[in-house]
Predict the 3D structure of the following.
Amino acid sequence: MSKIRALFFAIEFVISVVLVVFFMWLFNDKNRAIRKFWGRSQRFFGGYKLEVIGNFSDEANILLINHQSMLDIIVIEELHPKNVCWIAKAQIGKIPIIGKILSLPKMIAVERENKHSLIKLLSEAKD
């Protein structure tokens, strides 16, 4: 039963990302609200519950997480009060349709093996 549930969630997740990309393209000025709704809908379809302990600091401009799974991104998209800009490996941006999840909301793509990519990261993060 758990394998069926995991398969359902994986299929739903891919379809939902394609839909999020489409709606962010269609309503680019509303991409934060779309991503927040997407995070909330993933909790519904994934059947998990959250226990929130503490609050995000309004003064913080950088969040560092030890990214363990896609669930980290989903939960932060749902709960964080500000527009979050993710740093992701550049290979994700090269995936047809899915790669737009980086370019439409202006995420930062980094080539891990390129040392000059760090300079680009710092420049884009400043913006």
Summary: The chain has a mean pLDDT of 85.
